[in-house]
Amino acid sequence: MTDAGLRYGRASLGLSFGVQGVAFALLVTRIPAIQDQYGISDGLLPVFLAAVPILAGAGSVATEKVVARVRPSVILRWAQPLVLLALLGVGAGREMWHAAVALGVFGLSVGALDASMNMLGVSLQRAYGRSIMLGFHAAYSLGGIAGASLAWVGARYDMSLLASYLPVVAVLLPAALIGSRWYTEGNSPQEAGAGEAGAGGGLSFKLLLPLCLVMSFAYIGDSTVSNWSAKYLQDVLGSSEQLATVPYNVYMVTTLLGRTVGDLGVRRFGAVAVVRGGSLLAAGGFVVVAVAPGAWVGMLGFTMLGFGLCVIVPQTFAAAGRMFPGNSDAAVARLNIFNYVGFLVGSPLVGALGDAWSYRGAMLVPMVLVLATLVYARSFGPEPARYGGGHERPRTADVG
């Protein structure tokens, strides 16, 4: 693979992460409008919302099986357009079964998309010989900010879902298809894994389990911010309704900033140190949120959470690639399932504890789970200086 090919592959994959960030944000930030358009009751809404990550997990499982015969780049090339068309279907439907079908397709294709994107990211990082994974997830965060902003415009001007989604899909769909021409994979898992643990052999779930737990803990923390920050600031800390919308935006911006510079931190200090530092910062953020006397201190806590949590998920995928260099695609697909496990568990867990106990106390539960990442931090090493069974890094390691 030439240096130019790797650079084009890196740029096209970054575009794919960004497009996915836009699409997902446009869906989740317009849930009230989706509920109104289809007449979904409050009791039925959690079923629809839970179905998406459950089906996404199924899509990730299916991707693990399919990559034995089809390269991840092929899966990504077809999954991304399907996600965008499913989003458009959500906006265009009128009957409840339309929503069920569109969200079902969205969930399945998102699972395949997330898994294949991260497979390619791990592969490219292996080819580069240095940390670049956080940069891809920074592109996702940037897309999420753009998507949330577009959703705000749609809600502000009372636009229908179809009117909000159609122009975005009309731009992003051809861009994603054109960008897919340059999807690039690094060395094959078999080439990269010769002589190392897990190379070319079966995937040991026992070895992967610590990373699966870390992935779940990180997404429990993330879903706590996504689903409860506004309610917490308004109901517990007494902020205005307008101010209550700020913490999630601050969280997204700090996530973007942290991921933008995070790869430099990994190269300088190593993945283990960065993950440990992120875990401690995130745990401190939850403590600040839990004891905050007012809204502005609470926002400081959510800012700390953004900087802390943002490094954990990308490095978890990267660690799986290092742990199973000969079977990294399957490891990433298996690990990706626990993304959705954390998302499913986090919001109901905090809500139940908040109702039964207190929302301040509920914030301490994700704090403890994030701190548990410290126990498994060694799973994020060794650093990617040992590619090819202890041989020197590939010559492409200095690609810009």
From TrEMBL:
CDD domains the UniProt entry points to: MFS_MosC_like
GO MF assignments: transmembrane transporter activity
Alphabetized UniProt keyword annotations: Membrane, Transmembrane, Transmembrane helix
Superkingdom of origin organism: Bacteria
Localization terms from the record: Cell membrane
Membrane topology qualifier: Multi-pass membrane protein
Pfam families reported in the protein's UniProt record: MFS_1 (PF07690)
Listed transmembrane segments: 12-31, 43-62, 99-120, 132-153, 159-178, 269-292, 298-320, 332-351, 357-377
UniProt-listed SUPFAM superfamilies: MFS general substrate transporter
A GO CC term assigned to this protein in UniProt: plasma membrane
Domain Major facilitator superfamily (MFS) profile residue range list: 208-400
Listed name of the protein: MFS transporter
Species this chain originates from: Streptomyces violaceoruber
